[in-house]
Amino acid sequence: MTVAAxxxxxxxxxxxxxxxxxxxxxxxxxxxxxxxxxxxxxxADTLTAVxxxxxxxxxxx
Amino acid sequence: xxxxxxxxGLAVIVTFALAVTLAGCPTKGPYHDAVTxxxxxxxxxxxxxKAEMAEHTNGRIDAAEHQKLEAGVEKVGNVAQVLVAGLQAxxxxxxxxxxxxxxxxxxxxxxxxxxxSVKNAQSQNLLAILVxxxxxxxxxxxxxxxxxxxxxxxxVPATKGAN
Lengths: 61, 163
Prior knowledge:
The complex is a heterodimer of chains A (about 60) and B (about 160).
Chain A: H1 3-15, H2 18-31, H3 36-57
Chain B: H1 7-23, H2 30-57, H3 63-88, H4 93-113, H5 121-147
Helix pairs in contact in B: 1-5, 2-3, 2-5, 3-4, 4-5
């Protein structure tokens, strides 16, 4: 692989959608070394925050 | 400087992440599959909300669209909380299947009532890709659990997650 090819790949990675990388990081970080019970407890907290935010944002301003 | 959003790239990354997450799990079994699917679903739902709010803040989603979308997210989130409680209580396979189906139904409402009504094509496309990721997760776990209907899914104590 040439240096140009490597630079092209790095450039492509740098310009990809940040949300995609956020998802990858979340998937891996969220599962790494945790028991199922720990994953569920953390997700319960995440969902509580999502629902609270959604409820507040869904109200007419 | 304006940078063109790569929605195709996002779809590829999400699919890749799901594949790596699922394929990399050393702990197999329907209960862990269900927990992994629930976790992936929750992660994407949270990111859907963040993306929607960013689009709204940037003026690409108006107030009425924003309220509809967040109302839909709230409904999906409420059903997901029931799923998590069911998994924590070691509910039976049929119950868990039913809760995943309920999420699917709430998600369809979010798409029909919220995502499809977004006028900005770029924003609609972004949200549609994230919803598609969730639908793929639900479809995969639906197929997995349908094979397991004769085997109760029960938690294994101190089951470690992926990696």
